């Protein structure tokens, strides 16, 4: 059975500020996933999501005590001179030229990096506790887990108790508004195997990951001041990943990020002009064209967009009109797990050194879903934007002056060529 009503209720936030429902598990999750909440030693929230039937049935229980001696996350800190200084709460400043909010979090300079040439630490804070050894400075209290979700120890955005959300101005000048970056950053670990890869996970485990995305989408929307929920995955050193472990992140922004602002402007303008849903019409047009469809099952369609920017880019969209991940039904969640597994496997085979082995593809998987409060949400539609910086087996697409300086994209390939390569890797119609 699923976690008790008391357990699930404690996952929410009592300061709900909108009418969207909090997380309610559907039939599969009630029977096959148990969510167990606890708190880490410094006060951060932590959730086990178990699909192991022994935990689901209650035969085994999770370790809920974090043995680390950590001070409260918001406690005063020692400065360079030994004096106590207040917790350095992240702030965000607005760019007057673009209107973009830029979060700034100095505490992130101290976060550990365990992979790549800039590694600063050994061990893996996302791994489970090691049997027979002193407890590492890791984030998981137990010696094993299925999926876990917890607040980031070094967040770019966080809601600090007692900090006013009032707007101030840099140097007292009205050109530069500044506010607390009062959002939330969470980590979702897909599996305890720190050497594992997401494509190698069984579909059932990815189904639990999908449940985690839905769970946190519903719950984070209850926090005051949150405007956008963004689950995403960075994978690979080339992408800039600082911890080698199968994991993703979930950001809850106190603003609508720039790319979503642009998409909402276009989807809203399209609705006002045509009374149609732009994302639905894009899907229908891609289905009619057919050439760029790379995968399809009962609930989802994956295609290379007609104006793809990246040398490998695929958008994954639901067949049914859905606004956010927590609105997906059980079948859609299963079909998504299956399609995501297939996409990751084919992505790893997309580029090849000539030995037929493919490679561990660096990628970003970004969930675009309707904002929490903005009225334009009704004319949006859930979609996953999956892309890679790699443009050949031995080449990376670096963002040069045009892309970085003017956001004017230059593509090294065509969407039709990307789709054609995917068609070589497997059939369009997959089971589901």
Q: Which key features would you list for this structure?
A:
alpha+beta; HIT family, subunit A; eleven-stranded antiparallel β-sheet; four-stranded antiparallel β-sheet; 19 strands
* CATH superfamily label of the largest domain: HIT-like
How many H/I helical runs? 9
Q: In the CATH classification, which architecture of the largest domain applies?
A: 2-Layer Sandwich
CATH class of the largest domain: Alpha Beta
Largest sheet: 11 strands, antiparallel
Side by side, the strands of the main sheet go 1-2-7-10-12-11-16-17-15-14-13
Q: Cα distance, first to last residue?
A: 25 Å
Question: What portion of the residues fall into strands of 2 or more residues?
Answer: 15-25%
Order of helices and strands: HHEEHEEEEEEEEHEEHHEEEHEEEEHH
- Rg, rounded, reads 22 Å
What's the shape? Answer: globular
Helical residue percent band = 10-25%
Strand runs, count: 19
Overall pLDDT score: 90
Family: Belongs to the galactose-1-phosphate uridylyltransferase type 1 family.
GO cellular component, one term: cytoplasm
Domain Galactose-1-phosphate uridyl transferase C-terminal: 264-422
Active site: 247 (tele-ump-histidine intermediate)
Give the gist of this structure.
This protein has 432 residues and is an alpha+beta fold.
How would you describe what is shown here?
By secondary structure, the chain is α+β, with helices and mostly antiparallel strands. The protein is built from nine helices and 19 strands. Helix 4 crosses helix 7. The longest helix has 21 residues.
């Amino acid at each position: 059975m699923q976690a008790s009503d008391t357990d699930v209720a404690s996952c929410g936030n009592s300061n709900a500020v909108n009418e969207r429902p909090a997380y309610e598990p559907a039939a599969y999750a009630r029977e096959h996933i148990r969510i167990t909440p606890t708190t880490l030693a410094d006060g951060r929230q932590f959730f086990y999501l178990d699909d192991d039937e022994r935990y689901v049935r209650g035969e085994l229980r999770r370790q809920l005590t974090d043995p680390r001696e950590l001070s409260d996350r918001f406690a005063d800190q020692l400065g360079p001179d030994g004096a106590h200084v207040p917790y350095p709460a992240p702030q965000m400043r607005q760019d007057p030229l673009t209107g973009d909010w830029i979060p700034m979090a100095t505490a992130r300079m101290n976060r550990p990096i365990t992979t790549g040439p800039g590694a600063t630490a050994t061990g893996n804070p996302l791994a489970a506790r090691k049997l027979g050894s002193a407890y590492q400075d890791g984030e998981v209290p137990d010696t094993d887990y299925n999926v876990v979700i917890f607040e980031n120890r070094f967040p770019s955005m966080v809601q600090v108790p007692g900090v006013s959300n009032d707007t101030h101005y840099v140097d007292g000048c009205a050109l530069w508004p500044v506010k607390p970056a009062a959002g939330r950053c969470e980590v979702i670990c897909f599996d305890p195997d720190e050497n594992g890869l997401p494509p190698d996970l069984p579909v059932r485990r990815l189904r639990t990951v999908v449940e985690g995305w839905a769970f946190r989408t519903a719950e984070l929307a209850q926090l005051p001041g949150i405007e956008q929920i963004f689950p995403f995955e960075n994978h690979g050193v080339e992408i800039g990943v600082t911890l080698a472990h199968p994991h993703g992140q979930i950001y809850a922004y106190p603003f609508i990020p720039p790319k979503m602002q642009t998409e909402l402007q276009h989807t809203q303008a399209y609705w006002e002009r045509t009374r149609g849903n732009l994302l639905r019409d894009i899907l229908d047009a891609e289905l009619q064209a057919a050439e760029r469809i790379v995968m399809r099952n009962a609930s989802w369609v994956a295609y290379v967009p007609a104006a793809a920017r990246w040398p490998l880019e695929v958008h994954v969209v639901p067949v049914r009109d859905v606004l956010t991940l927590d609105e997906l039904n059980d079948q859609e969640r299963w079909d998504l797990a299956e399609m995501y597994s297939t996409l990751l496997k084919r992505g790893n085979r997309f580029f090849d050194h000539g030995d037929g082995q493919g490679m561990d593809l660096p990628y970003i998987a970004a969930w675009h879903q309707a904002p929490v409060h903005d009225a334009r949400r009704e004319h949006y539609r859930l979609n996953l934007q999956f892309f890679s910086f790699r443009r050949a087996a031995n080449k990376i697409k670096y963002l040069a002056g045009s892309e970085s300086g003017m956001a004017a994209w230059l593509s090294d390939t065509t969407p039709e060529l990307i789709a054609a390569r995917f068609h070589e890797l497997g059939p369009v119609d997959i089971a589901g």
